[in-house]
Specification:
With about 350 residues, the chain is an alpha/beta fold. The chain has 13 helices and nine strands. The chain has helices at about 1-10, 35-45, 65-70, 90-105, 120, 135-145, 165-170, 195-205, 240-245, 260-275, 280-295, 305-310, 315-335, and strands spanning about 25, 50-60, 60-65, 80-85, 110-115, 150-155, 180, 210-215, 230-235. Strands 1-2-4-5-6-7-8-9 form an eight-stranded parallel barrel. The structure holds flavin mononucleotide.
């Protein structure tokens, strides 16, 4: 259903936001989309069918760090539908972590087969696991046999080359994966270049499991590419939501994109909550600085402000800069200009 419904909505002059039944997921972004971010985003924007937690690393006996456990505790994730993500290459550790997650009430866990970072890949985890399909097969045999929860997988399309993908997909086709989320880049590409959407369309034709598309979605109209397939059930968006929160619409799927008054309240509350929970102002400040790298380019005259935000280590200076940035933007919007004028949303 989903894809054709989207296309109908768009061709009728609507937006994806009106395609209520098409699931939209918030991608995991380690260091950014922790529980404070997720629940604050939900309060101001919503419209997300599932949030995926940044990866939880395992050790013998289950989840490695208290900080990671805290991030997925249900009491910290009220009001959102969360799927915890696991990063490991040890089946036993996966099963133990999944059991802990099931005990917390989760019915689905996500396996990370996409992380490209050197320290992860060198241990044969994340995208690094795709280099050894024999051992990945043994791992999948065991976890699909013993996991107490349903398993979705978030994957890249290869380590070095897109030619690796057919064999990877053939392996995935042997398991009842709840949803196969494909970020169509190889590990070598990290986040560079254009995603290989042709490879995703190959998956649409050959996957035995439902698919979710992930990668560089920043506009509604990009959804049109899924027109020819019905196996793609959902879209996962990460950096697009950091840059333009709410661009897919709110819980009623009404687009909030570009509303700088809402955005101001959102970033203020986010900072307030980080300050409450984190020891030391500097940590809260770093969190906000990271977010502004994505947010700022959607303001009209942002360069000098972003430069200051990136440079400062003082909370007072940060607050004053952000205040000025919003002031300038809101007054230019009142005059009728602004970053979103004439843009399709
Ligand atoms: C800073 C950062 C942290 C990320 N952390 C994770 C993670 O913990 N788990 C994961 O599966 N992917 C992670 N990713 C990948 C994203 O979930 C997503 O696949 C990628 O950003 C492409 O989607 P997008 O273009 O919509 O952002 C991360 C990406 C970035 C930029």
């Amino acid at each position: 259903m989903a894809v054709n419904h989207i296309v109908d909505c768009i061709s009728a002059g609507g937006t994806l936001a009106e395609a209520k039944s098409f699931p939209i997921y918030f991608a995991p972004l380690e260091g950014i989309t922790g529980y404070i971010f997720r629940t604050t985003y939900e309060k101001y924007y919503g419209g997300i069918d599932k949030y995926f937690s940044p990866f939880v690393v395992t050790r013998d006996g289950g989840i490695m760090k208290n900080k990671e456990l805290r991030d997925i505790l249900p009491e910290n994730n009220q009001g959102i539908d969360l799927v915890p993500q696991i990063l490991t290459s040890q089946a036993q550790n996966f099963i133990q972590a999944a059991s802990q997650m099931e005990a917390l009430g989760y019915g689905e866990v996500n396996l990370n087969l996409g992380c490209p970072s050197g320290t992860v890949v060198s241990k044969g985890r994340g995208a690094g696991f795709l280099a050894n399909l024999l051992s990945l097969g043994r791992f999948l045999d065991e976890i699909f046999d013993k996991s107490p929860c349903e398993i979705s997988i978030k994957t890249r399309i290869g380590v070095e080359d897109v030619e690796e993908f057919p064999a990877i997909l053939k392996l995935y086709n042997q398991y009842p994966i709840k949803e196969l989320i494909i970020h169509p880049r190889t590990r070598r590409e990290f986040y560079r270049g254009i995603p290989h959407r042709d490879v995703f369309l190959y998956a649409c034709r050959h996957s035995a499991n439902p698919l979710c598309y992930n990668g560089d979605v920043v506009e509604m109209k990009e959804m049109k590419m899924f027109a020819e397939t019905s196996i793609c059930r959902s879209v996962m968006i990460g950096r697009g939501f950091l840059a333009r929160p709410g661009f897919c619409g709110n819980a009623g799927r009404k687009a909030d994109d570009g509303d700088k008054v809402v955005l101001k309240a959102f970033v203020e509350e986010l900072l307030g909550r980080y300050r409450e929970v984190m020891s030391g102002e500097i940590h809260a400040l770093h969190k906000m600085k990271e977010l502004w790298i994505y947010l700022a380019p959607h303001f009209t005259n942002y360069q000098k402000y972003l430069k200051k935000i990136k440079k400062t280590n003082k909370m007072g200076e940060y607050l004053a800069t952000v205040e000025q940035l919003f002031e300038e933007e809101l007054s230019s919007l009142l005059k009728g200009g602004g970053a979103y004028e004439g843009k399709e949303i």
